[in-house]
């Protein structure tokens, strides 16, 4: 049930009217030179990633068919200004269903207020539904919980646990 999606756009934002010069599209190889990692570094440590490593990893992701990495490009600047990823994970349960994960949602600091986060997150919700995911999950900082609630995400009773290496 996706009726909990109450996110609204003001002014209206849609894939056909993203805002002057802003384009939402899948990641491509050339985005390495358009500041893709600079945007990611606003979320967490990216480490040193060479063009070769990026190419190898991205090729692998494309081969699996389970990675949907979206970017927003400011075509005037020729720079990536926001990104978000949907990953589908395969299950035996729920009649061999897929589960979706939303990861690395980042909007460049200087682009705040343009509702690019809403644009990306709502696009990934529609995509997850289209791909027949039985649920979509994400982890986020406590300050972002209210933002995701607007799209119908609810806090889970399950504990989020991790081992870090
Ligand atoms: C946030 C991100 C997650 C990312 C993590 C990186 C969203 C919705 N969540 O939780 O995808 O992997 O930050 O933090 O964008 P880390 O470097 O501590 O793993």
Automatic annotation (TrEMBL):
It holds the Pfam family Acetyltransf_1. Keywords: Acyltransferase, Endosome, Golgi apparatus, Membrane, Transferase. The keyword NADP does not apply. One of its GO terms (biological process) is UDP-N-acetylglucosamine biosynthetic process. One of its GO terms (cellular component) is endosome membrane. Its EC number is 2.3.1.4. It is found in: Endosome membrane; Golgi apparatus membrane. Pathway: Nucleotide-sugar biosynthesis; UDP-N-acetyl-alpha-D-glucosamine biosynthesis; N-acetyl-alpha-D-glucosamine 1-phosphate from alpha-D-glucosamine 6-phosphate (route I): step 1/2. GO terms for molecular function: glucosamine 6-phosphate N-acetyltransferase activity. It is a peripheral membrane protein. It catalyses: D-glucosamine 6-phosphate + acetyl-CoA = N-acetyl-D-glucosamine 6-phosphate + CoA + H(+). Its main location: membrane. It is an enzyme of class 2 (transferase). Belongs to the acetyltransferase family. GNA1 subfamily. This is Glucosamine 6-phosphate N-acetyltransferase. It comes from Cynoglossus semilaevis (Tongue sole). The lineage of its organism: Eukaryota, Metazoa, Chordata, Craniata, Vertebrata.
């Amino acid at each position: 049930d996706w009726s909990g999606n109450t996110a609204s756009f003001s002014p209206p934002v849609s894939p056909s009217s993203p805002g002057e010069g802003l384009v939402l599209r899948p990641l491509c190889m050339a985005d390495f030179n358009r500041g893709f990692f600079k945007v990611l570094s606003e979320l967490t440590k990216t480490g040193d990633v060479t063009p070769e490593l990026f190419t190898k990893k991205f090729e692998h992701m494309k081969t699996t068919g389970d990675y949907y990495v979206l970017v927003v490009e400011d075509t005037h600047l020729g720079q990536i200004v926001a990104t978000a990823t949907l990953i589908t994970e395969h299950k035996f349960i729920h009649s061999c269903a897929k589960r979706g994960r939303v990861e690395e949602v980042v909007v460049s600091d200087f682009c705040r207020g343009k509702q690019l986060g809403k644009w990306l997150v709502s696009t990934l919700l529609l995509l997850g539904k289209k791909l027949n995911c039985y649920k979509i999950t994400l982890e986020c900082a406590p300050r972002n919980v209210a933002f995701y609630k607007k799209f119908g995400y609810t806090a889970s009773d399950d504990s989020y646990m991790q081992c870090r290496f």
